[in-house]
Amino acid sequence: TQSSIVAMGTRLAKAMKETGNEYLMLNRGVNSVVNIDLTQVIKTIDFNSTDIQVYPATNGKMDLLKAINSEYFANQASVTNILVTGGGISGLDISLQNTKVDKVWLPPLFWGTYSQLLSLRGMLFESYESYDWLGRNISKLSGSAVIICDPGNPAGEKYPDGLLLELIKKLNNNGIVVLFDSPYRRLFYDQTDTLFQELMNLEHV
Q1: CA 58 vs CA 49, 80, 83, 84, 123: distances in Å
Q2: Quick check: 171 and 134 in contact, CB under 8 A?
Q3: 74 — alpha (psi -120 to 50), left (phi > 0) or beta?
Q4: Who is most buried in 66, 124, 125, 156, counting CB within 10 A?
């Protein structure tokens, strides 16, 4: 089903239109609440440089790939296994198209784009109740992929790392594909965080 928070946003938009009252849309990005001033940042970018004007080589921008490897994987990953896309939606779509499964399981509250892309690609999907439910229903998940978003979007819920890693390893060891979506982790952790390094060697993650 559609995320409850997306449904709330739809109801609020309708209420604003019908009543003329304004509501603070907490399910929207920060720039819906306050403008992001990029004036000073723009001054530091040479828009006429080769970096900006010319497409990178087929293998991507090596400096960027090396920086990602350093920042998130302590230089333990292979840069050939790092893919940079034009935004999270593109990355998710490529992942879904290259994941051969019967069904995709979504978190109970999920980013609406998950279901939109799955519908677009003609893939079956359903929501799971909780991480505990996943652990208890391994046999039901056979042939499926599970999306785990932690910290969660849109509700911000955070599962303890030890239990999270234990669950992902259990899913992986049973041949269940895990798409681990974690764009907000670095709001809480720094370079000493080792979770990405622990996940990168799991075959189905």
Answers
A1: 19, 11, 11, 12, 30
A2: yes
A3: left
A4: 125
Write down the pLDDT at residue 33: 64
Q: ∠ CA(134), CA(8), CA(4), 5° rounding? A: 10
Measure the CA–CA gap between 98 and 39, rounded to whole angstroms: 39
Residue ranges of the chain with per-residue pLDDT less than 70? 1-5, 26-33
Structure tokens at 10: 């739809």
Sheet holding 103-106, edge to edge: 124-127, 103-106, 144-149, 177-181
- With the C-alpha atoms ordered 14, 20, 26, 31, is the resulting torsion angle positive or negative? positive
Q: Are 187 and 151 in contact (CB under 8 A)?
A: yes
Q: Which amino acid is at 85?
A: T
In terms of Cβ atoms closer than 10 Å to its own Cβ (0-12, 13-18, 19+), residue 1 is: exposed
CA distance 74 to 105: 31
Q: What is the pLDDT of residue 28?
A: 61
| CA-wise closest residue to 27 among 3, 9, 1 | 9
